[in-house]
């Protein structure tokens, strides 16, 4: 039941972000896939601000052979970019998840940085990190952290394809439940449309 609420909430956020792109000046839509995982994300600038962005994502993973997981995010970041050579952001992100019989939420802080590789203007690389300690985690959630990186190639104007790696770990204190493995880890491929 909680999973359906998460899915409908994030899909609603994504739909509103995409359909209201003229009001919010949508900046990017992204999708990535691996053998076990699919993720969609949108990023848009808030109207009447110079560098405040809101983004949302939905990740579905079958990394665990016995259970699937849904992880949604909704974030606010200060972003600096020229959309040609670099993009940097610092801010906060709300994570909410449903995994097996567990669900919860946490507020993470972090950021990301991507830059074109000198001498290869169509090639860029970078990474990101998000961390939610116990003090900003709700219910039985103890901690969430996500790390990742990617190498992207601009195939046509404002459209990148990329190869990335993601590591997403969840700590939960529900008795009898042990998390020795990350919720999601491994390489993926995807594309990003920049507006």
Q: Can you give a write-up of this model?
A:
The chain has 195 residues and is mainly beta. The protein has one domain (2-194): Porin. The chain has two helices and eleven strands, in the order ααβββββββββββ. The protein has helices at 2-19, 21-24; strands at residues 26-33, 37-45, 52-61, 69-81, 86-99, 102-117, 120-132, 137-138, 141-156, 159-172, 184-194. It has a ten-stranded antiparallel β-barrel with strand order 1-2-3-4-5-6-7-9-10-11. The chain starts with a helix and ends with a strand.
Number of strands: 11
CATH architecture: Beta Barrel
Number of domains: 1
Radius of gyration: 17 Å
Spatial separation of the terminal alpha carbons: 36 Å
User: Structural class given helices, strands, pairing?
Assistant: mainly beta
How is the main sheet built?
A: 10 strands, antiparallel, barrel
CATH class: Mainly Beta
Helix content: 10-25%
Low-confidence stretches: 16-24
Binned strand content? over 45%
Number of discrete helical segments: 2
Shape: globular
- Overall pLDDT, averaged? 86
The strand line-up of the biggest sheet is 1-2-3-4-5-6-7-9-10-11
- Helix and strand element order: HHEEEEEEEEEEE
In the CATH hierarchy, the third-tier topology is known as Porin
């Amino acid at each position: 039941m909680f999973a359906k609420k998460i899915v409908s909430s994030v899909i609603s956020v994504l739909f509103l972000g995409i359909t209201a792109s003229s009001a919010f000046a949508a900046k990017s839509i992204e999708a990535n896939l691996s053998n076990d995982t699919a993720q969609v994300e949108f990023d848009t600038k808030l109207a009447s601000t110079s560098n405040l962005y809101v983004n949302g994502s939905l990740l579905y993973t079958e990394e665990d052979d016995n259970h699937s997981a849904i992880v949604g995010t909704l974030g606010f970041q200060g972003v600096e970019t020229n959309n040609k050579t670099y993009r940097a952001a610092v801010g906060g992100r709300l994570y909410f998840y449903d995994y097996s019989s567990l669900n919860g939420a946490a507020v993470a802080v972090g950021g990301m940085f991507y830059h074109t590789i000198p001498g290869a203007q169509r090639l860029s690389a970078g990474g990101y990190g998000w961390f939610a300690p116990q003090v900003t985690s709700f219910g039985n959630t103890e901690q969430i952290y996500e790390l990742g990186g990617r190498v992207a190639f601009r195939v046509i104007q404002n459209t990148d394809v990329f190869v990335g790696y993601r590591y997403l770990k969840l700590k939960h204190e529900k008795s009898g439940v042990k998390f020795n493995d990350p919720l999601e880890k491994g390489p993926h491929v995807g594309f990003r449309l920049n507006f």
